[in-house]
Design goal:
This protein is of the alpha/beta class. The protein is built from twelve helices and 15 strands. The chain folds into two domains: 138 residues, Rossmann fold (3-Layer(aba) Sandwich), CATH 3.40.50; 104 residues, Dimethylsulfoxide Reductase, domain 2, CATH 3.40.228. The structure holds iron/sulfur cluster.
Amino acid sequence: MLKINHTICPKCSIGCGINLISNDGFIVGINPFKNHEINEGKNCKNCIDYINKLSENTIKAFDYTKTIEDIKEKINTIDNDKITIITSGNCDDKTLDSIIDFTKQNKYNLLTYEYNFSKIDSEILSTYDEIEKAEQIITIGDIYRNNSLIARRIIHAQQNNAQTINIHTENNLTGYNSDEFIKIDSYDTIDEVIKSIGLKDNSIIIINQIDTNENYEKVIGLVNDNNIKLLPLLKHPNSYSSLQKINPSSVDEINTTISNSELIIFINENPCEYLDEKVLENKDVISFTEDDTSLGLSVPIRLWCQDEMSFTNSMGTTQTYPDAIQDDDNNLKTVTQILELI
Ligand code: SF4
């Protein structure tokens, strides 16, 4: 049976609404969620491509019995401090909480990589509406390419005469569409570059890319010193919550912990973008995955939209939606259910 229900796009941290269309429990597409206050029915290519990928998924039943037994057996043969769980803001709040409890109870290592971003004070965080009223918008990274529903707000700000400046290490779409483009060789002097622009009272810095947490902290320091606002556009739909709950690691820290571990369990995280797969050689690897990362023993989990879920977006707003598919024939388990069985 064809169903259309509200949920949140899982492809980045902006928190755009989607109307998810499913047929007999399988995703078949999306339809504009016109009343959604963030995106008013519009969705970007990243969202559409991901939904199209999910529409190729034909799994809704899995026999967990042997897999769970195998995982339990493996875990029992390895010292707890040699077991590392790596998760991400792809998990909703309930799932993150159950992962944190599980790792604490068992004294496993718990890591996340949030692309060098870290938790910031809510007082300096810009809302999406504030973008349209800003006098000056400084973008770091390619916002137009990666977060186009925020780019739409920047265009509205330009129509309201905001000055726009893009800073990036390479030519990019956002730079092309800004009043000024500043090409830098390295982010090490990012604070000096921003200062040289001449900040206005009502300035907002929007950032979706930085090479180290140290350089991100320089941006935060500058925002605090100048009493302006910052909007970090985080990688995953629930990265904001992930940063509140788990202290993120750098790639080097993750590499070191992996090299000291015997078993690595990825939970709703595909590390291929930032980890050299060689670091996983000779390690036991298990992946609890929504869309099969093909890393080690792959254990399917329910999609974000197949359970009540809550994601907190980049401006700190939590959105909760019920199961958007409602398919009684789907026996896939949530991460929480799997952890309870291990
Ligand atoms: S901007 Fe992000 S949340 Fe919005 S539709 Fe695109 S990928 Fe999804």
